[in-house]
Amino acid sequence: MIHLENENFDELIKDKVVVDFFATWCGPCKMLGPVFEELSTEINDIKFIKVDIDEHEDLCRKYKVMSVPTLIVFDKGKEVNRNIGFIPKDKLKEFIK
What we know:
Shape: globular
Number of strands: 5
Largest sheet: 5 strands, mixed
Strand content: 25-35%
Strand order of the largest sheet: 1-3-2-4-5
Structural class: alpha/beta
Helix content: 25-40%
Distance between the termini: 17 Å
Number of helices: 4
């Protein structure tokens, strides 16, 4: 799993990735975090990226992230799926695939 810091986001999303836009102060984000991390160890053909919205406001604006947690699946740089709010592990697995 990648915790976005100074990496080039556009380069990272060229493959199939799922991005968790989160905030450290967000209750549902804290619930989703362990589920997201667990799946990142189980699914090896997809990159998992966490983006702190307070540190990357530019990406939030670019991808119109208005609420957290927001999960976005990218494939070859294009958004293919989006979910807002907490999602249980089994549903998250379906959402990613």
